[in-house]
Structure formats: C-alpha cells, structure tokens
Amino acid sequence: MTRTPWNPMATPGHYFSRIARALARIGDARLRDLGFATAQLPVLTALKEGARLSQTELARWSKVEQPTMAQLLARMERDGLIHREPDPADRRSSLVSLTDAARARLPAGRAILEQGNSEMTRGLSAQEVETLMRLLRHVLANIETMEG
After folding, report:
1. Where does the pLDDT of residue 1 fall: very low under 50, low under 70, confident under 90, or very high at 90 and above?
2. What is the value of pTM for the model shown?
C-alpha cells in the first residue's frame, strides 16, 4: 500500500494558525494608537458595559489560565485601562472594571476591528461569509469537545 506523504501545509490547522497569527499582528498594529492590544479583547469585551468581574471570572470567560490573566490585568492596570476595587463579598479578591478612558476609546477600537473583518472577507458574498461563519462555529464546537 502506498502512503501519501503528510503535508502539514495542506491542512486546515495550518491555515487557522496562520490566520490567527496574522490577525493578531494586524490587530495589534492597528489598535496600538488607542493603547489596546488583541490579547486584551476578551477583557475589554467582558467589561464594556460597565461590568465588574473578578480575575477568576475573567480568566474563565477568556479561556486562559489564572497566571496569564494576572499578567494581562497587571499590564492593563499599568496602562490605565482597568482599575481594581475590593470585592465586598470576598476580601481576598478584587473586582476589575474599565476606566473611563478605556471605555471612551472602545468605539474607535470596534471600528478598527469591523474594518479588519470587512477587509479579510473582501470578495466574499454575504452568503459566503455566513457559510464561513457556520463552518467555523462547527469547527470551534469540535475543538471545544476535544478540550473536554
């Protein structure tokens, strides 16, 4: 039996990885003037409506480990994007919220991200974009099942 050689460059995973890395680089470059970074997007999104969440809740919501979230929040606090206040329900914890300055820059950040999404799907019809989204949701569900 002849076995076809494995070509990792011809797999969906290869393209997902390249796309994710490129989007992070482009997003970071475009968001830099606002003081935002793509790694902060889950936190900015979770807190955008004035929510106050603990580091544990933010880590769970963002699907990252606690130490990773701690480092991210420390940088965001240093940069004036978030502030922390004691959690009245748990003295060992604090609640994180966006600063007024960060909240004021969110609409401009959203416009940058919307522009990027428009550019990356240029040449696709609305129906093709919806098909792509449906397929990506399916792949993501498979990956989440793999994670357990």
Report:
1. low
2. 0.84
